[in-house]
Write a structure and sequence with these properties.
This protein has 281 residues and is an alpha+beta fold. It folds into 3 domains: 2-94, Orthogonal Bundle (Helix Hairpins), CATH 1.10.287; 114-161, SH3 type barrels (Roll); 167-248, Alpha-Beta Plaits (2-Layer Sandwich), CATH 3.30.70. Helix content is 54%, strand content 19%. The protein is built from 8 helices and 8 strands. It has helices at residues 2-42, 47-72, 77-94, 96-111, 151-156, 182-195, 230-248, 265-275; strands at residues 119-122, 125-132, 136-141, 146-150, 159-161, 167-176, 206-212, 217-226. A 5-stranded antiparallel sheet has the order 4-3-2-1-5. A 3-stranded antiparallel sheet has the order 6-8-7, covered by helices on one side. A hairpin with a 3-residue loop joins β2 (125-132) and β3. α1 packs antiparallel against α2 (47-72) and α6 packs across α7. The protein is elongated. The termini are far apart.
Amino acid sequence: MEVGNVSVEFDHVLGILRALLVLGLGITLARFAARALEKAILARGDRQLAMLARKGVFWFLASLVLVTALHQLGFNLGVLLGAAGILTVAVGFASQTSASNLISGLFLLGEKPFAVGDTITVGDVTGEVLSIDALSVKLRTFDNIFVRIPNESILRDRVRTLSRFPIRRFDLKLTVDFREDLKALEKVLRATSDHNQVALQEPKPLFLPLGYEEWGIGVQFSVWSAREQFFVLRTSLIQEVQQALLAAGIDIPYRRITLSPPATGADEAGLETAAEPSGEG
């Protein structure tokens, strides 16, 4: 009888060892296969598809490995699959938001409004796309903050892809005095953009009077740059235009507020006395 118990325990231990061996080798091979597929797709330049393919292949193979390991331990797979089906239905009813995000993610993958590495603006959040997952999109903002946005919110909101095209335009808006010569102003602005190191000459800069405003004439000066140099252009052009306008003596009107100290009690009394007739002689 003791020999029988020892044999049963040995078979149980052997099953555990086989399950651990299957898990170890299977997960290792799944990771290797997923990374190999990712590298093959990255060679074609599609980072988004490479990331999704790596995750999909890994979890599919890992599921097969887990089922095989459970079989080595003697679990009845039919019962497990039935329980998993019931659990899936229950979770599906309980997580309708997740299902909506999953469906929205499929629409995003099909439409491809942006890709991994792009800079996008969703609502009031702007950042670089780190990943596009089944339920959400992960962003890293310019101040290095991690932001997770559900796919459903992205599908319903307006999305601006700032890095979609190779060049971008910076619109500099300013107001000049009514008495300023707009042709002279245009000449100064164009000369400034010509000397800017990152400003493009094609497309040509645009000088556009916007109309009369409360404090003067509104003007827009639009300059193009390479996408990677946009923030360099914005910073340098504002500084250079300021120096050029000062050198040319072109006035930019601004609101002036004059503050005067309140009158003291003695001054008020003196004013009242001076305002009233004396009534003598």
